[in-house]
Amino acid sequence: MENLAQLESLCERLYKSQDSVERSHAENALRCFSVDSNYILQCQYILENASTPYALMMASSSLLKQVTDHRLPLQLRLDIRNYVLSYLATRGPKLENFVIGALIHVLCRITKFGWLEDDNFREVVKESMNFLSQEASHYIIGLKILNQLIAEMFQSNPVLSMTQQRRVVVSFREQSLLQIFRISLSSLSQLKTDVGSNLQKLALSLALKCLTFDFMGTSVDESSEEFGSIQVPSAWKQVIEDSSTLQIFFDYYALGLPQISREALECLVRLASVRRSLFTNAAARLKYLSHLMIGTKDILQTGKGLADHGNYHEFCRLLGRFKINYDLSEIVSTDCYNDWIRLVAEFTLKSLQSWQWASSSIYHLLELWSKLVTSLRNFKGERPSLLNEYVVEIVQRFISSKFDSFQVELSDDDSENPLDNSELLQEQLECFRHLCRFQYESCCKYISQISDPIMQFYMEATGLESNGVNSNLSLLETKLAWMVHIVAAILRIKSSGESDELHDAELSARVFNLINITDRGFQNQRYSELSKQRLDDAILQFFRHFLKSYIGEQAMESSKRLYARFSELLGVSDHLQVLNVIIGKIATNLKCYAESEDAIAQNLNLFLELASGYTSCKLLLKLDTVQSIIIHSNREHFSFLRDNRFSRTRTTFFYTIGLLVFAEDNNSKFKSSVDPLMQVFVNLEMIPDGMFRTDTVKQALVGLMRDLRGLAMATNSRKTYGLLFDWLYPAHMPLLLKAITYWADTPEVTTPLLKFVAEFVLNKSQRVTFDMTSANGILLFREVSKLLVTYGSRILPLAHHGDIYAFKYKGIWISLTIFSRALAGNYVNFGVFELYGDRALADALDIYIKMILSIPLTDLLAYQKLARAYFAFLEILLKTQITFVLNLDSITFTFIAGTIQAGLRSLDANILSECAYAADYIATYYFNHITSGELPTTPASLNLARLVADCPGLFPEMLKSLFETVLFDDCGNQWTLSRPMLSLMLINEEMFVNLKAQILVTQVVGEQPRLSACFDNLMMGISRNLEAKNRDKFSQNLTRFRNEFRQR
Fold first, then answer.
1. pLDDT interval class at 1 (50, 70, 90)
2. Of 38, 114, 119, residue with least CA distance to 77
3. Cα 92 to Cα 56, 131, 137, 140, 986, distances in angstroms
4. Where are the annotated coiled coils located (predicted)?
5. What would the pLDDT profile of 144-180 be if each residue is shown by its tens digit?
6. Which helix (H) or strand (E) holds 509?
7. Among 333, 448, 589, 741, which one is most buried in terms of CB atoms within 10 A?
8. DSSP tag of 552
């Protein structure tokens, strides 16, 4: 830069120009400040001398990038840190806020990266306090530093590994977080009179950041509904038990300023979630609870601040936290309980009445009441809980509010129907069912009273044909859907008494009566209506829960009162008759919902659930309706089989049919069930080659492959698999080869075809087992090899496509899965191929190596399914064909070794385990054939010795990655990792000694002697062999070594 003015002009254009070309020019001209560490001093010069905030911002941003992207010397980082602190102290109050923020970001980033390297970095909290003792402008900077520091600690950064990130966070939590929280509390106390100021907001934000810190290293909000409590460290006990801590947040809420009140309530939500074991004793915990209840009671009495929606929602969350951490007996024992529970009930009823405004907050209130009533069974308090005075009215108000909401939302085309939000619906019903069961008789009567008139109106409306009733029918169907969802939720809890079972019968009978109405009269024309689809979806939910509670031989015996009542109300007296009604409804839906993919999928999933159970499957086979479905499982009877949109659901349909057919153990039934597929085979096999690339053929192939995959999934025994194999081989296998030959460039065809083959070669439950005199296993592999070699040889030369994953990588990972399953299936003696000169195995291995090498390592690791398939294949390949791998050329072997090394650093536990096994196979071979044996003589051992000599860092890097994972990560597969660790350590003891020195030098000096002893004990009692007993001894030593090493 010629002068500072020119630079300031460029900076102004960078941040203010509307012209993208001009901004790009400025960015390129200024890039050197952020990429070249030699420009750090120039950044300092700019900060000292520039007059425009944009130049200061550029210098600050460049420093941030420098400290993030470059591994700067320790002293230089300390100098930058000290300079930024000094600069903020002297010139900070005069700077623009965005410049202050950028400089603070630099300070906090460099502090985090150096936290474990030098004590000076950990002095940042103390130095921030120097700002707090000065005037307001400096006070603001001090609070901003602490806010950003916590945010920076909480945020993961790719520069730090997960292990380093966790170590920094834990150290910061132990050394500084409590001190910062105390600072926030003292600041809040000092600033009480400074109402609405930025200082108040910053102090409150700082307290909230402390309370939402990742105490357990889970990177999740611990006070969310998935967690019972937040694990505040024991050192926080005194400050939490201090009554002024809770009171300061109630006081700030009382200020009535929306943002401040909301954050104060958020802090209270966290404080209400602290773990029970933190408190000194039960008396301290009860005192804390009483303070919370009194504070919330005062808010309920005055209603202050609750007109703000944010405050309202957080207050509901706060109430919902009470039963999470405290027993009902503790809550009832407080002096203010009677008033508190009455006010909470009134607040709940008012919230339910104001459903339009409070719909997203109601769940927290229902959760509170649900947990209160479920606790009564263990309640041992002397005072009454008073819950029975309020629960029935809450149930009634909840139902009526939902009816009111449907009335309004159906008239508003833009509003979302609550029945479509399945997550929120299930959350609310999960709580609601406990409330209904609490006073079941009263609730059952109320549900019956309001549902009977609706069903009567609905029955009358179905007989009409006028289009004018459509809107009324939609409203009735929506209300009935809601009622069915309620009944379904109640049935999730099995009745525990005679009276409850009779109430279940009363409610369930109404749903079964409703089924008789939904598919008759004018309703036959309404399958395209959303309201009818929602009603049928609710009925499916009811079926699921009713089946679990009341279908089956044991359920029949224990539910005689329910079926006796059914006989009176419905005319059905046993579970088979009820099951026939359910299957009849499923069959009707499958035939009639020709336009709804979701409806077809939901019905098929329920049908599959029934067919998958042993008992339920046997019951289904007794039903004429099921036999009819099996016989007529074709596109003429089920129109969705003709629609290309439903091609994915065909697999589920034929999987279900296959389970039913194979359960009968009847060869003739199997042959008759595959007649429709046989006809498709015959039609396709008759098509000449010149006409094989048409849309008609494509759709037929896609449908056939999905159907076959469903049947293959249903074969779970040697006999059933044999039926399918004998039907397909050898008659129909040529069609698969022809299809892959002509359609290799079309993933729509190859994906379902390859997925069928992947299922067909999978030896689950040892189903792929042939007679000793049979060559079927070898013949199966030969067919698979021909198919995969054909696919690979055609997909590799094709030009790159826009979506490389869909076009190429997806087919490759499915092919890898096929080959992995074939290699590991244990139904082929692979030595036969070499013995008789058959190229099936060699050609398959060659094409797979080519496919793997065609994928860049970055892509291989970036696509999760591809990575999982590749590493699973690699582990099987090295286990079964290690000599092939060791005889590969150096470039290919180096690539494979590099992927193993990358996999050993993976966060995916399965990939990590597979790479550990792969590393062990190579290391074990090296140890047995080179290290401990005589001079290598086989081609594979000679080649391995040469490859390792050419790449001396291969084994040390693998061992280093394994040690770092075991020592610094929370690995659940330690036993697996111990296998290659021992193999690698026995290959070269010097390698282990060097690694030990590298690890020790990164530890605190005072800890190094203890940790060195841990390393010495690791090999205690270990011999120089890889026998199973020796490996197990090392695994035990490794567990003890890890525990001792991680102690602080």
1. very low
2. 114
3. 12, 10, 8, 10, 59
4. none
5. 999 999 999 988 877 777 777 888 888 899 899 999 9
6. helix 498-518
7. 589
8. S
Tens digits of residue pLDDT in 418-447: 677 777 788 778 888 889 988 999 999 999
C-beta of residue 207 within 8 angstroms of C-beta of residue 182: no
Q: Is 58 exposed, middle or buried (0-12, 13-18, 19+ CB in 10 A)?
A: buried
CB 849 within 8 A of CB 892: yes
Q: 3-state secondary structure string, 75-138?
A: HHHHHHHHHHHHHHHHHHHHCCHHHHHHHHHHHHHHHHHCCCCCHHHHHHHHHHHHHHCCCHHH
Residue 198 in contact with residue 140, Cβ under 8 Å? yes
Side chain identity at 674, as an amino acid letter? Answer: V
pLDDT score for 419: 77
Question: What distances in angstroms separate CA 123 from CA 119, 120, 175, 874, one per listed residue?
Answer: 7, 5, 10, 49
Structure tokens at 894: 């180096």
pLDDT band at 229 (very low <50, low <70, confident <90, very high): confident
Residue 230 φ then ψ, to 5°: -100, 140
Whose tokens are 């019968």? That residue is 505
> Omega before 53 cis (within 30°)?
no
Determine contact, residues 110/81, Cβ cutoff 8 Å.
yes
Kindly report the backbone phi and psi dihedral angles of residue 803, in degrees, each rounded to the nearest multiple of 5, phi listed first. Answer: -100, 90
pLDDT averaged over the chain?
89
The amino acid that residue 735 corresponds to is L
Beta partners for 230?
Answer: 274
Determine the Cα–Cα distance for residues 233 and 237; give it in Å rounded to an integer.
8
Q: What is the dihedral of CA 335, 340, 341, 345, to 10 degrees?
A: 170
**What are the structure tokens assigned to 957, written together?**
């890097």
User: What mean pLDDT do residues 753-781 have?
Assistant: 95
Rounded CA-CA distance 257/970 in Å is 44
pLDDT tens-digit map of 928-941: 988 876 666 788 99
Question: What does the pLDDT look like over 868-885, one tens digit per residue?
Answer: 999 999 999 999 999 999
Q: How far apart are CA 751 and CA 759, in angstroms?
A: 12
Q: Quote helix, strand, coil % in the chain, to nearest 5.
A: 75, 0, 25
Phi, psi of 878 (to 5 degrees): -70, -30
Q: Is 267 exposed, middle or buried (0-12, 13-18, 19+ CB in 10 A)?
A: buried
pLDDT in tens, 679-689: 999 999 999 99
CA pair distance 575, 565, nearest whole angstrom: 13
Residues in the chain: 1048
Q: In Å, how far from its chain's centre is CA 126?
A: 40
Burial grade of 301 (CB within 10 A; 0-12, 13-18, 19 or more): exposed
pTM exceeding the 0.70 threshold for the entire prediction = yes
Contact (Cβ atoms closer than 8 angstroms) between residue 363 and residue 431: yes
> Which tokens belong to 1020?
């205690």
pLDDT of residue 226: 45
Q: Which residues are registered as beta bridge partners of 274?
A: 230
CB neighbour class for 637 (10 Å; exposed up to 12, middle 13-18, buried from 19): middle
Residue 12, number of CB atoms within 10 A of its CB: 16
- Give me the residue label for tokens 């439903």: 646
> Can you tell me the distance from the alpha carbon of 351 to that of 359, in angstroms, rounded to the nearest whole number?
8
